[in-house]
Amino acid sequence: MKRILILFLAIFPLWAGVDLTLSGAMFVPKASYFRDAYGTAIPSFSLEGEYRILPMVGTFLGIDYLHKTGKLTYSGEEVTLRVVPVNAGVRFHFLTFFADLGVGSWNYNEKASFDTASGSLTGFFVAAGMRYSLIKFHFRLRAKYSVARKKTEDLKSDLSGLQVEAGVGVSF
After folding, report:
1. In total, how many domains does the chain have?
2. Distance between CA 149 and CA 107 in Å, rounded?
């Protein structure tokens, strides 16, 4: 037990630190009306910072940006959507693999010629991925499933879906 503790204390300073990752992703919405208007795969970008609080556990804060122009299902009019999710969570590392649990706020703005809808949805997500490190740089692949929906009397919003991303980053 003493050897394990000494090994842990020796390795901890080498693993602990801050990582910044820039990613490109494809978002596949769950809601059929969303896919009908904007397509089945929507490109997005994200910036994320992670701080390792333990060698195998980190916390992270990230922001995504998604912008897409589509056509309304019934009228065929052009509609533009902008979504900016801000999320935070905890990441568990297992060698080159990791798993995420987190919460987020999905801020959206949808504009058509006759109306504008904007607001914010709160939700959660789970993710899993792998990371390959080379000195201070890393390459990352991640799949994330998010649940963010809200239903009011006259409006149903659902920004849930699967996001697959690839990114590059640097560790400090």
Report:
1. 1
2. 12
